[in-house]
Amino acid sequence: MRSALSGRQLTLAAGDYAAVVTECGAGLRSLTFQGEPLVLGYGPDEPAPAAFGQLLAPWPNRVDRGRYTWRGRDLQLDISEVERDCAIHGLARWKAWTPVREEADRAVLACRLLGSPGYPFRLALEAEYALDAAGGLTVRLTARNEGGAPAPYGHGAHPYLTVGEPIDGCTVAVPAREHLPVDERMIPRGPAEPVEGTAYDLRGGRVLGDRRIDRAFTGLERDAGGRARVRLTGSARTAELWLDDAHPWVEIYTADAVPAGDRRRGLGVEPMTCPPNALASGTGVVALDPGAAFTGTWGIRAG
């Protein structure tokens, strides 16, 4: 029997929630609540468009020219975003991940990321997806250094929240005090700045209108459990993404350059452990010692 382009399809269900996770990249291909999508999805025989639902490791977002220095060693990543001359979104999102545990409401997938010239380190990655009838989806990504030297590490994820209508008329709430300005190649050229008095102040909720946003936010306000919450509210429903304190950054993207049928019909909400260009700048990069592990958790639920 022919398998899908994105490999095995792991289906999860709990209460009114249902999800599909792919063997390719351990990506979130679909998430629904009461049959309605909470994220922009795609077909099993499509490569994930515009990084829909992908996990981003061992770095999220861009590395300028693909160049960075680690412990005195100059390294060069393959350029995966040719138009901006950047390496983007890590090495694991197109790898085959092995399902190691499958239950009705939970799946665990693993990936062995072996060394390469641009990233001469060895990681064991594990992604856990769990659905709960009350709480929705929880995603936990863990990296363990299986090599003999400290490795630079960061991760993220790339779901697009949707409420089934164009986002222009939706209210977006991002509890961030700062945003990170970028240049025309989407590379940071200075420190984060206050959102106060700018179009990027989405605290408390703002109608998105014609704002075009593709940048990282930080200084996140969190609840007593350490979670920050980004909400997209339309005329009839709400989708919410939460991220734990392993993720000090969140990228917000108004889906202006995704395939035409989905353009500005979803909001990219990307939990990140470090900002864009972190491998080069060093900001927020985890020095993962041999044998050590790092874990971050985020989730999505209907509002």
From TrEMBL:
<dbReference type="InterPro" id="IPR037480">
    <property type="entry name" value="YihR-like"/>
</dbReference>
<dbReference type="InterPro" id="IPR011013">
    <property type="entry name" value="Gal_mutarotase_sf_dom"/>
</dbReference>
<protein>
    <submittedName>
        <fullName>Aldose 1-epimerase family protein</fullName>
    </submittedName>
</protein>
<dbReference type="InterPro" id="IPR008183">
    <property type="entry name" value="Aldose_1/G6P_1-epimerase"/>
</dbReference>
<dbReference type="InterPro" id="IPR014718">
    <property type="entry name" value="GH-type_carb-bd"/>
</dbReference>
<dbReference type="Pfam" id="PF01263">
    <property type="entry name" value="Aldose_epim"/>
</dbReference>
